[in-house]
Amino acid sequence: MIQGLLDGILFGSILSLGAIGLTMIMHTLRFANFSHAELLSLGAYVALVFDKVFSVVSPTLDNTIGSLSLTLSLVLAFPLALIITGLSAMLIDKFIFKRIREKGEELSMVFASFGVALIIRNLIGLIFGLKTQLFSDDIVMAVIISLDPLIMVKPDQIMVLGVTLVIMLILHLILTRTTFGFALRAVAENPSLAEVSGIKLSNIVALTWLIGGSLAAAAGIFYGLTNHVNPIVGKDLVLPIFAATIVGGIGSIYGAVLGGFIVGIAGNMALLILPSGYSPAVPFLIIMCVLLIRPNGLFGEGRE
Amino acid sequence: MSDTVLKIENLVAGYVKGMPILNDVNLTLKKGTIVVIIGPNGAGKSTLIKAIAGIVPITSGSVTLGSKNITGLAPHTMTKEKISYVPQSDNIFRMLSIRENLELVLRASTEDTTSRLDELFEQFPILAEKQKQKGGSLSGGQRQLLAVAMALSTRPEIILMDEPSAGLSPKATQEVLELVRNITKTGVSVLLVEQNVKQALRLADHCYILAEGRNQLDGPAAELLNDPVVGEIYLGGKRIVAS
Which ipTM was obtained for this model? Predict the structure, then answer.
């Protein structure tokens, strides 16, 4: 049970990163972006490409760090993947969603997001193939923390959890201490009032995509590091990420973090009592239970 | 003419291209005065101040601030032009604290946030007391105070207010309108849309009556308050028809 809890926390931290970007977009632009999870795949593959490039350019960068499967080349590839995925998210908005948004068709944006998801997923499959890939071929053994009960954890998982928490702390500081953070929260709540308060909406929207895309890339890389990378990672994670967003309350970044952990833990704990085939249903059960009690999610607030 | 701070000339504006709500509207606002716009529902009162604020597209005509043409400038640039706009509803951020509401406007401007916040809290002690509370926790009257404080924070020359008394109790309405009067004593000019005609006319220096998107009548507020035609229209509910 403790093992399930631990695995759930680790998986939940990855879901949280994905859910933060999704909740920002959903609240600011008022549409359910089903292509968001594909940015996780995109980020992971961009990192994979740069990881290989750096390894080829300088083989010493291919050495793992300590007891982690993480290599120096992946450390260098990480920020590049975040930037490129964030910029890709901005471009997708500029060329697709913005044009639909300007016509005021929110439902069309949802359908368009399905199309964008399919395009990204299939392009990745076309370019990189459908087979599963790993960031490192080195086998890293899990460390036994306790024998009774048996609790094991991989050093990569601990590192991912630590880095995720640091990213969340940085995001918290950005939201509460910077002009951008204030503006983002204001735009998410009331775009027209934010605009007459002196905030340029297009800049905030662009930065929201940039940050949301970057966080999705981080989630994708962490998922790849602790599991694997393949073109359907986004498809597999889209529902848990949506569940985390809805459970936390749309628009609440802190809710998305908590929602990610709830969905991650519940999904892993469910494996203790349910056959693994039923685990995809767990996020839906959580959504239903939370929404019955709090229709706006745990941290969400209704709009006037 | 030198004390004219805002001049609207032959303004044609509307939400949908080819379907103007305002037709050939003219208006002048002088420094340190209150100008009220009244008229029946659908007359285009709110549309007029939204057009000035850059929210509603302007088809033709001009909006001149001092000697600068600001026709069609984007809404987010208005605070830099020293124009603040207070919407009728949803005019504060409910999920931000009172302090954050004020800080947001200040951060988006060039004002020194800390010193200006201190000044505003001195001017609005009730907001200072509740500065850590969420905006949504305030009463209707206190929300209007916060909205006015947000508008004042960037030291505007002009404040555009859309029905500041809407939904308020008589006491809160009185407080807000008194606040509006006090604002003008510092040289700020106020352009006000108001449904409460009698109170608006008592408060304002000058009044414009709009109907069907056109100027119908204008004059000193005190004169219009005693004008039998205006009295008949607003007491008897007779509708002004565009000539």
Answer: 0.88
